[in-house]
Specification:
With 255 residues, the protein is an alpha/beta fold. The protein has nine helices and seven strands, in the order βαβαβαβαβααβαααβ. The protein binds NADP nicotinamide-adenine-dinucleotide phosphate. The site of NADP nicotinamide-adenine-dinucleotide phosphate (NAP) has 27 residues, from helix 1.
Length: 255
């Protein structure tokens, strides 16, 4: 198991889903975790289970300057960090004819703007501590051109591109930057689609080579890998954690 004792990690969107699983995994490995999100009751539910002096910093990452403001609060609270898991994100299922500029701004404000500004605010503290690891939670929507989600896919494509660019800027300073593209992970993010689009869930499952939806823990284990020394020679990578969906054929064999 990875030994994260003495490390400080920030996880955004830690109140549920992939962020919650990542916070739990980092804490179990010994890291002190700063949990961020909007819903205090959920953040407290997660923090109550953690062992290593977890800290909660409640924040809405949609307004301008929210990412920078959260970074300033992190520095004021814990001094500096070693690991940042940029996980907070919202979906945006809108066909091209229905997508508005407001939809576009909203999904980019959280999934892209705050993600980058929080990272830029915390990176220098990683450098001061001798290096660090930024883990961006992207999506296979950036890899495979999903139907009806052009803006969401655009945010995740931006995350992938920023991952590589920042890896170039910060590599010489010992800060690694990698991205994970989850496939279909059974979290609250799917609740609306599950209710509103009959048959979608089953149809998508058929496209996964491993023939099951993922769990938060499936992604959290890879978060832990990128946070740990095991990935010390990796930076600028964008890795799918999708049971074989984005790049693996799931078509039935002919004949
Ligand atoms: N689940 C999947 O199948 C899947 C697939 C590909 C990529 N992803 C990506 O994985 C990440 C996590 O998704 P998830 O499935 O775990 O979703 P989720 O269960 O809906 O969790 C989203 C998290 O983001 C936080 N969040 C949402 N809006 C926020 C805001 N305005 N300010 C601050 N925090 C906010 C939520 O906390 P509060 O509501 O408490 O603020 C929550 O903790 C997202 O970036 C998503 O795009 C998920």
């Amino acid at each position: 198991m990875s030994d994260m004792r003495g490390k400080i990690a920030v996880v955004t969107g830690a109140s549920r889903g992939i962020g919650e699983a990542s916070a739990r995994a980092l804490d179990a490995a010994g890291a002190r975790v700063v949990l961020s999100g909007r819903t205090m009751s959920d953040l407290e539910r997660v923090a109550n289970d953690l062992a290593n002096e977890p800290m909660i910093l409640q924040a809405d990452l949609s307004p301008p300057r929210a990412g920078t403001a959260l970074a300033e609060r992190v520095i004021a609270s814990v001094g500096g960090v070693d690991i940042l898991v940029n996980n907070a994100g919202i979906p945006m299922r809108r066909t091209p004819d229905l997508l508005t500029e407001e939809d576009f701004d909203r999904v980019f404000s959280i999934n892209v703007r705050s993600l980058l500004m929080l990272t830029l605010g915390l990176g220098p503290s990683m450098m001061e501590r001798g290096g660090g690891s930024v883990i961006n939670i992207s999506s296979i929507a950036s890899l495979r051109g999903p139907l009806g989600r052009v803006a969401y896919a655009g945010t995740k494509g931006a995350v992938d591109a920023m991952t590589r660019a920042l890896a170039a800027d910060w590599g010489p300073h010992g800060v690694r930057v990698n991205a994970i593209c989850p496939g279909l992970i059974a979290t609250a993010i799917w609740e609306n689609d599950r209710k509103n689009i009959p048959g979608l869930i089953e149809e998508l499952e058929g496209q996964i080579a491993l023939k099951r939806w993922g769990y938060g823990e499936d992604v959290a284990d890879v978060v832990l890998f990128f946070a740990s020394e095991a990935s010390r020679y990796m930076t600028g990578e964008v890795v799918a954690v999708d049971g074989g969906m984005a790049r693996v054929s799931s078509a039935p064999r002919p004949g």
